[in-house]
Amino acid sequence: MPVKVIAIIGAGYCGTLTAVHILRQNPVNRVRVVLVEQHSRPGRGLAYRTWDDNFLLNVPAGNMSALADDPEHFVRFCQNIDPAFNAASFISRRLYGDYLELTLREEITRHRETVIETIHDEAIAIHHSGNDAYQIDLRNGASICAHQIVLALGHFPPLPPAPVTEFYKTPAYINNPWDSSALERILGNAPVALLGMGLTALDVLFRLTSSSDTRKIYLISRRGLCPQPHRFHPKAPVVVGFPHYLKNLPPTAKAYCRALRLEIERNAVRGGDWRDIINALRPHSPEIWRRFSVKERWKFLSHLVAYWDIHRHRLAPSAHLRLSDMLKSGQAEMIAGYVRNYKTHAGQVSVEISERHTGRIRCVDVRHVVNCTGPNFNLACITSPLIVQLRSEGYLRQDANRLGIEVNEHYQLIDCRGDAAKNLFYVGPMLKARFWEAIAVPELRIHIQALAKILK
Ligand SMILES: Cc1cc2nc3c(=O)[nH]c(=O)nc-3n(C[C@H](O)[C@H](O)[C@H](O)COP(=O)(O)OP(=O)(O)OC[C@H]3O[C@@H](n4cnc5c(N)ncnc54)[C@H](O)[C@@H]3O)c2cc1C
Predict the structure, then answer these.
(1) Where is the FAD-dependent urate hydroxylase HpyO/Asp monooxygenase CreE-like FAD/NAD(P)-binding domain (predicted)?
(2) Which of 95, 168, 169, 356 could pair with 336 as two cysteines, CB 3.0-4.6 Å apart?
């Protein structure tokens, strides 16, 4: 029987887990899996390649199993290290990377008959090579032939926010908040401004203050909203049906938002916590997203997403306490407003901000500015050679709300003519375009498992 080659480009969370599921689902030797990874070891994608235990998962261990069909899998891994860990613990992202590496290693050992190969290189182009097969070109000049390809490329660095100025070309500006070597250039105690106030900004805040408890950090965001904390003993999410309070509503962002707020208020009167309402809503986000028209999605993205994000993307309680202490002491300061201009003089940057609530112009003097406004989902602005080639040759296309890559229900790429590619698949945060809620482990693990079934 001929061997089928499945190439997975990107061996972070999604790529590694796709390989794990292929191994689990292919007991006989009919598949060769090739993992192509440009940066690190399989399992150590952007989120989990940190070696610093200060960075905690923002989801309790009980909801971080990599395997959708084995919810206790991660908790068991943690308890092997320290029996005191439990489902409510917030574990470090470093340990989660260890867990993903181990999960892959164990599966490889269990299925020695399936060949799995890791290639340390960047994929820069994909072409049809006849008979429904593809050729993948690598940066080093080599190429790989594959029958099926899974793109698991992860996040792309943020776009520089408006106003785009010459300042962005200076070394005082760091566009990629995940570039550790760039952050290491920020030495000493000099003040720093972070653009954005989400979980990425808080990562950078903790990183820049871990070696200096006097360095001043300004967190500048349009609305000045801060991610909310998890509870110290978070309840396990309970799977319930589609929320009754959203049934029979017109499918508009405004109607759904109003109903959600009322339900949270009613729940509070009963002594309940808003987090339980958000948790119960989360699995139904794809269905709600499906009901919204492109216009309603834009309305949500323009007016409501910032409020949704701070309730949905929560912080580990200890991280929230750390942030609160820094805000109280004045080491960190939140400024709601938008940046109008940057002026550089003598190694300093003066950031000119129009304050949201007063309209006053305020200037803060810093040594560096770091862009923490979130990943870029706009394919037209991504400079990765692979994305540029796939887009310009029509292998993939952007969704109407510029949230990611268009796929059908089988995760097959939709090409520029609107046709599904038979053997070209995507899994990762750009599934947001189709499902909205698809960027974190609890959702991605379900998509990965479903995709692996399709690949077999
Ligand atoms: C900082 C951070 C913290 C997070 N914390 C949590 C959390 O606590 N809980 C949670 O549920 N979710 C969390 N998430 C979200 C989620 O877990 C990740 O986004 C998820 O890991 C995405 O997996 P991925 O495989 O798509 O991306 P990644 O894991 O980043 O993997 C993508 C890989 O593809 C490689 N690659 C890209 N292009 C190419 C190419 N052309 N050729 C070869 N290789 C390529 C990259 O080098 C990378 O290793 C976090 C995300 C981030 C960014």
Answers:
(1) 7-156
(2) 356
Per DSSP, 304 falls in state I
Could you give the CA distance from residue 302 to residue 304 in angstroms, rounded to a whole number? 6
State the distance from the centre of ligand 1 to the C-alpha of 167, rounded, in angstroms. Answer: 29
pLDDT for 145-160, tens place per residue?
Answer: 999 999 999 999 999 9
Domain ranges in the chain are 4-156+377-454, 166-228+315-371, 244-312
Q: Do domains 4-156+377-454 and 166-228+315-371 have the same CATH topology?
A: yes
pTM: 0.95
Tell me the per-residue pLDDT of 182-201, one tens digit each, with 9 for 90 and over: 998 887 889 999 999 999 99
Token code pair at residue 422: 């038979």
Distance CA 16, CA 32 (A): 14
58, 166, 247, 437 from 284: Cα distances, Å: 20, 44, 12, 9
**DSSP H or E segment with residue 121:** none
Q: What pLDDT sits at residue 1?
A: 52
